[in-house]
Amino acid sequence: MSACTWESGSLLPLSLGPSVCTTRSVELRLGAACRPVVLAKDKNKLVILSEAKDLIVQSFAKASPSSRAKCVASLRLLAYHLSTPLRSLCGKFSPSPPMNTQPLAISPTDRLFLLTGAGVSAESGIPTFRDSNGLWCNYRFEDVATPTAWRRDPQLVWDFYSMRRRDAAHAKPNPAHQAIAALQHRLDRLFLCTQNIDNLHELAGSPRVLHMHGELFKSRCESCTRPPFDDAQLYQPPAAIPRCECGSQIRPHICWFGEVPYDLDEIYAALDACTIFLAIGTSGTVEPAASFAAHAARRARTYYVGPEPPVNLRVFQQCFLGKAGQILPDLFAAP
Ligand SMILES: NC(=O)c1ccc[n+]([C@@H]2O[C@H](COP(=O)([O-])OP(=O)(O)OC[C@H]3O[C@@H](n4cnc5c(N)ncnc54)[C@H](O)[C@@H]3O)[C@@H](O)[C@H]2O)c1
Ligand SMILES: [Zn+2]
Question: Are 11 and 77 in the same domain?
Fold first, then answer.
C-alpha cells in the first residue's frame, strides 16, 4: 500500500531534454472507478498535478491490492510514454519499459470484434490522422474529403487520393497486421473491422476485412450501381477524371466526411454478438467507430491497444499501452 501512495509534492525524476512543459490528462482505472490524472512534464521532472494526486491517494486507500497494482503499472507506462527514460517513480519503482504482455484469454465460445485505426499502420510508415506530420497538416479535409469538395473540384480530390495511393503502394504490413492475420487463421469467430483504407491487413494475409471507410485501391461510379472495382491508377494532371460507361465520373471508393460508413448493419450485428471487443490504434474521436466500444461494453470485455490512452478510455476495461507492433504478437500468442 505505501508503495502506491504519492508523498505531497512528490516529483518523478527524469532525464529529459529541453525545458518544455507539456501536460496530458488521462483517466486511470482503479477497480470500478475512473480517476482523472494530469501528468505534466516540467523541465526535467514529471509531475502528477496535486488535485488529481489527492484523488488518486484517496482512491488507493479503498482499492483492492490487485487494482492498486494495475493502476501503478498503468501510471508507470503512461509516464514512460509521456517522457522516457523514467528513472524512478517516487523512488519506489525501478525503470521499466512496457512490460511483457500476457496472451489474451480467449475461450472456445468467445467471439472477438477487432476494430483497427490509423495507429495499426503507423509502424508501416503510413501517417495517422492527427500526427504532427500527418496528412491533414498539408491538406484541409474540407477541400479533399467531403462530397462538397468532390462537386467543387474533383481534380483536387483525385490529386489527393492519387498521392495517397502512391504513398501506400510501397507500404508493407508490420507485426501488428501479421499478429491479427495469424489470430484470424486460428479463430473463426473473429470479426475484423478497420477504419483504414490501406490494404495492409489483406497483404498480411487477413482473410476477412470489413473496410467501414472504404478502400484506397478501389474506385466506383459516382451515380450508377456498378460495384466498386480494383483501381491503383493515379489520376493527376494531365490525366483526365476517369469516366464510367454510364458517362458519370469515377470517384475514389472512400467514405468521406458527411457520408455514412459502409456495412453498418453487419458491423452492429457483430458488435451485438461479440464477447471480446478490442480497439487498436484509434483515437476514439471519429464517429460512429468511436462509439463501438461503448456499444459492445454492455456485454463484452473491452480492451485498447495503443501508445496513448484514447479519448474514450473510460469504456475500456483494460488498456495495453504501447505500439501495436510490439504488443499484439504477445497478446495474440497461442496459449
Ligand atoms: N492507414 C489508413 O488507412 C489511415 C491513415 C490515416 C487516417 N485514416 C483515417 O483517419 C480516421 C481517423 O481515425 P483513427 O482513430 O483511425 O486515427 P487517429 O489518427 O485519430 O488516431 C490514431 C491513433 O493511433 C495511435 N497510434 C499511433 N501509433 C501507434 C502504434 N504504433 N500502435 C498503435 N496505435 C498507435 C495514436 O495514439 C492515436 O490514438 C479514420 O477514419 C481512418 O479512416 C486512415
Ligand atoms: Zn456509372
Answer: yes
For 88-99, how does the pLDDT look when each residue is reduced to its tens digit (9 = 90+)? 232 222 223 344
- Active-site residues: which are they? 213
Pocket of ligand 1, candidates 77, 115, 128: which has the most ligand atoms within 8 Å of its Cβ, to mutate?
A: 128
What residues does ligand 1 touch, defined as CB less than 6 Å away? 117-119, 121-123, 126, 128-130, 135, 195-198, 213, 281-283, 285-286, 306-308, 310, 323-324
Q: Residue with C-alpha cell 452492429?
A: 268
Domain that holds residue 200: 112-331
DSSP assignment of 150-176 equals: HHH-HHHHHHHHHHHHHHHHT----HH
pLDDT digits 0-9 by tens, 97-138? 344 578 899 999 999 999 999 999 999 999 887 654 555 556
- Specify the range with the lowest mean pLDDT, choosing from 44-58, 87-101, 250-264: 87-101
- Measured from the alpha carbon of residue 223, the closest ligand is 2
Report the domain count for the chain: 2
Q: Tell whether the model's pLDDT for residue 36 goes beyond 60.
A: no
Last residue within a domain, chosen from 63, 82, 101: 82
Is beta strand 214-221 parallel, antiparallel or unpaired with respect to 112-116? unpaired
Asked if residues 186 and 334 have their Cβ atoms less than 8 Å apart, the reply is: yes
- Alpha helix ranges (H) inside 173-251: 175-186, 200-203
C-alpha grid cell, residue 88 = 524512478
Task: Examine the domain organization and report whether 33 and 129 are in the same domain.
Answer: no
Whether residue 215 is found in the same domain as residue 253: yes
